[in-house]
Design brief:
Blueprint: E1 4-12, E2 16-19, H1 20-26, H2 31-38, E3 42-45, H3 52-60, H4 66-71, E4 72-78, H5 89-97, E5 104-108, H6 114-128, E6 133-142, E7 155-165, E8 170-172, E9 177-180, E10 186-187, E11 196-197, H7 199-221, E12 228-233, H8 239-248, H9 254-266, H10 268-271, H11 280-291, E13 300-307, E14 311-319, H12 324-336, E15 339-341, H13 343-351, E16 361-362, E17 372-378, E18 381-386
Parallel strand pairs: 2-15, 4-5, 4-6, 12-13
Antiparallel strand pairs: 1-7, 1-8, 2-3, 6-7, 8-14, 9-14, 10-11, 13-14, 16-17, 17-18
The structure holds 3-hydroxy-3-methylglutaryl-coenzyme A (HMG).
3-hydroxy-3-methylglutaryl-coenzyme A binds next to helix 2, helix 7 and strand 13.
């Protein structure tokens, strides 16, 4: 049977960050609550000149060849930070990246689950059309509001994946188990830029959905915990993955200790970026393949995807090729070049946005070195620009 999965993968986050110790001090919180209790170190602050579209383009541009752009037959854009209520971000992305116009381009929304829905659709499509490629992106800005309990779990960025037959990185297995239910744990009403959340309830539901889909997966496939080299989680904050592991394993067990070691590698990038919403699970996957020197070809990786509202899915994949440095070096380079903001600077940037009407507006793009930027709005159209000589 033909193998299908992730052939190429890229990541982008903006050039600003906030140190969570600075945030803790400003909010009169013990820094260990954020560092240990939440499991975060730095939080991406998204430059106003970046949106879901530009971040997705910046995440894709370094790995797509001209041949890939011709072979792509579908562009699936998972986001809950869409730039338009009607037109999909995928069509903007197609134009910015110069992807084949004889393709299907659309957006998927189900909170943080959108990119997983996209990945599964892409795999099914390529199983039927093995010569075609599908571009799947998850791109979001996680916002809860200044001085809210959710503030420490903000972040943002994009992960982009090329799904093909005979993939270079990981083959995704056909069986997956899923569960959905109408739950009010986290939502963002049409009128609001910030998410509303019932924080502790959302943690509970996340764990319930994980346990349900994980146990059903074991039942359907006959697999056992020791078949998995690593378990990956949607990471709204990295402590959530620890909670996930503890919910199925005794902390003193060898299996817990073994999986925790791999998880430490899998949370490295997420701890320095924060919640990406749709991209978080896949940033954790990137973090694993970039930082884990114990992985080998054939290893089985379990993925738990969760999107509030709520949808959960557990699936798995087998590692194809390992090349840690190929993924680690560019991301470390990008993260190390970010500019640290003071809390006051972050609070100021947080408020900058396009006016909430149809007026023309121009951003100052001088501080944004990314390849693709949002320069503003003219005659009701969003204006995107490619700055080819200023890449990060
Ligand atoms: P909170 O009430 O401020 O925090 O909100 P807390 O009091 O629960 O403390 C957090 C942890 O820090 C606790 O550990 C404390 O014990 C510990 P836990 O019991 O959880 O293991 N702690 C300390 N540790 C060390 N030293 C200290 C210290 N003090 C306390 N001094 C909450 C936390 C996560 C609820 C809040 O930030 C929030 O509402 N975040 C947003 C919601 C969220 O991320 N939910 C996650 C599940 S839902 C999901 O993943 C979907 C989502 O990504 C959206 C989507 O799908 O689109 C969010």
């Amino acid at each position: 049977m033909i193998e299908v999965g992730i052939d190429k993968i890229g990541f982008y986050t903006s050039n600003y960050y906030l140190d969570v110790v600075d945030l803790a001090k400003a909010r009169n919180v013990d820094p260990n609550k954020y560092l240990i209790g939440i499991g975060q170190k730095k939080q991406a602050v998204i430059n106003p000149t970046q949106d879901a579209v530009t971040m997705a383009a910046n995440a894709s541009i370094n790995f797509l060849t001209e041949q890939d752009k011709q072979d792509i037959k579908m562009i699936i854009f998972g986001t809950e930070t869409g730039v338009d209520n009607s037109k999909s971000a995928a069509v903007y992305l197609q134009n910015l990246l110069g992807i084949n116009k004889s393709s299907k381009a659309f957006e998927i929304k189900q909170a943080c689950y959108g990119a997983t829905a996209g990945l599964q659709i892409a795999c099914d499509y390529v199983r039927l059309h093995p010569d075609d490629k599908v571009l799947v992106v998850g791109s979001d800005i996680a916002r809860y509001g200044i001085k809210t309990p959710g503030e420490i779990t903000q972040g943002g960025g994009a992960v982009s994946m090329l799904v093909t037959a005979n993939p270079e990185i990981i083959a995704i297995n056909e069986t997956s188990t899923f569960y959905s239910e109408d739950i009010m744990d986290f939502w963002r009403p049409i009128y609001s830029r910030n998410a509303l959340v019932d924080g502790h309830y959302s943690n509970e539901i996340y764990l319930q959905f994980f346990q349900k889909t994980y146990h059903e997966y074991l039942q359907q496939t006959g697999k056992k915990i020791d078949d998995f080299a690593a378990l990956l989680f949607h990471l709204p904050f990295t402590k959530m993955g620890i909670k996930g592991l503890k919910s199925i394993l005794d902390e003193d067990s060898d299996e817990y200790k073994r999986l925790l070691e791999h998880f430490e590698n899998a949370r490295n990038f997420n701890a320095n970026v924060g919640n990406l919403y749709t991209g978080s699970l896949y940033l954790s996957f990137l973090s694993l393949i970039a930082n884990d020197h114990g992985l080998k070809t054939g290893d089985l990786i379990g993925f738990f995807s969760y999107g509030s509202g709520a949808q959960g899915e557990f699936f798995s994949g087998n590692i194809k090729n390992i090349d840690n440095d190929k993924y680690r070096l560019p991301i470390e380079n990008m993260l190390s070049k970010r500019k640290k903001l003071s809390v006051a600077e972050y609070e100021k940037i947080y408020e900058i946005t396009l006016p909430n009407d149809n007026s023309d507006f121009e951003f100052d793009i001088s501080d944004d070195k990314a390849r693709f930027v949002l320069t503003g709005r003219k005659n009701g159209h969003l204006v995107y620009e490619e700055q080819s000589d200023r890449m990060l």
